[in-house]
Write a structure and sequence with these properties.
2 copies of one chain form a homodimer.
Chain A lengths: L2 H22 L5 H10 L6 H13 L3 E6 L7 E6 L1 H26 L2
Chain A binds a DNA duplex (30 and 30 nucleotides) through helix 1 and helix 3.
DNA sequence: AAAGTTACCTTGTAATGCAAAGTAGTTGGT
DNA sequence: ACCAACTACTTTGCATTACAAGGTAACTTT
């Protein structure tokens, strides 16, 4: 049990929230998301992201369309569905509560 | 994939941090922790807490001693070890960074 | 046409949260 | 003295899922 493993653990729970947030701002494909998450120091790898996107699609929270690229293979561009938008709104609340609860415990004297 | 499951997911990552924080404030036993976490709206059940405490002990982050109860069976009272204290301090940093990274993504316009 | 790049997908493993059932010490009513 | 209720800790089995590693395919460059 080292610090790095626990850091990974902590990030797990909010990944879904971050990805839905990114998709909510406009059409993106997987590499866009990877870049933004990496910039925000929330590490994710392909092996995590692709299965998660598949789960989100199966749950009806996101949808995608194939788009030809100017250079390279075609890309899957994702968008939020109506359900996805409602779900994200609920997650925002959950996140805010979690932060407040955790800080209450961590800073309690 | 419902909201409740995702809420559970989110909490997972910070559980270790919360539990170490609680133990850092003084000797407590499992039911004390369950009560405090429940009050803070971070739901945990026995089946999660006990194995986690065992992992923390095996990792040398916490220690415990048996204490006879005035009423009921004896209790395991936990304390942080030196290593546990250092680990908690690192986790505090990880948590702060995660909150800031996530909010940056979630509130980015 | 061969090598490189970009993009998406899959498989196998390990970790772990949780429900549910189990063990054991203590108390209180009859 | 017994037995039900309570408290506390433990264990088992299942489902989920992050990740490393390897794979497929389209397109570009040399």
């Amino acid at each position: 049990m080292n610090l790095e493993n626990t850091q990974v653990q902590m990030r797990k729970g909010v990944l879904e929230f971050c990805i839905l947030s990114i998709i909510s701002r406009g059409e993106v494909y997987a590499s866009d998301m990877l870049e933004e998450l990496t910039n925000a120091k929330i590490m994710v790898v392909e092996g995590t992201l692709y299965p998660l996107l598949t789960r989100l699609r199966k749950a009806g929270l996101v949808d995608y369309k194939w788009v030809e690229s100017i250079a390279g293979p075609p890309r899957k561009y994702y968008t939020l569905t109506h359900i996805g938008r409602e779900f994200l709104s609920g997650l925002q609340g959950t996140w805010n509560e979690l932060v407040s609860s955790t800080n209450r415990i961590a800073n309690h004297q």
